[in-house]
Every structure is written in structure tokens, then in C-alpha cells.
TrEMBL record:
InterPro entries: ABC1_TM_dom, ABC1_TM_sf, Type_1_exporter
Membrane spanning residue stretches: 34-54
Keyword annotations from UniProtKB, A to Z: Membrane, Transmembrane, Transmembrane helix
Superkingdom assignment: Eukaryota
Record localization: Membrane
Domain ABC transmembrane type-1: 1-81
Gene Ontology cellular component annotations, sorted alphabetically: plasma membrane
GO molecular function: ABC-type transporter activity; ATP binding
Annotated organism of origin: Aegilops tauschii subsp. strangulata
Protein name in UniProt: ABC transmembrane type-1 domain-containing protein
Amino acid sequence: QVVSFNGEKKAIEMYNKFIKSAYRTVVEEGLVNGFGMGSVFCILFSSYGLAFWYGGKLIIDKGYTGGKIVTVLFAVLNGAT
């Protein structure tokens, strides 16, 4: 129908306008999702590091065993899920 009414240029212009708008929206959504997931994983891995550091501190200072530290770590991880 576009060809029969000589509306090709108008249809192409409308298509390009809408495709640019959709592209901008998808790029913004991707950035937000990326920062969100990055923040979640940063907190997750930082908490793992903190747990291992504190476990090492307990082993050195209070004589805990590695088995106790791992047991508590896995108990906390299972309880959090």
C-alpha cells in the first residue's frame, strides 16, 4: 500500500524515528540493568571476602578451626537463600 500511494519516504522517515527512539530506550535500560546487577554482585563478593577475612581472624586470634568457619559460612549462605 505504501508504494501505491507514493508514501515510501514518509514511511521510511517514521520507521527511522521510531527505531531511534526504541534504540535509545533499550540502551538506557541496558545501562540501568548493568549497574544494578554489578552492584548486587559487588555486594555479594565483598561479603564473601569479609566473611573469609573475619574467619581467618577468628582462626588466628581465637583458635577456631577451618572446619568451624566453613560450617558457619555455609550455614549463613544456606539460610540466606
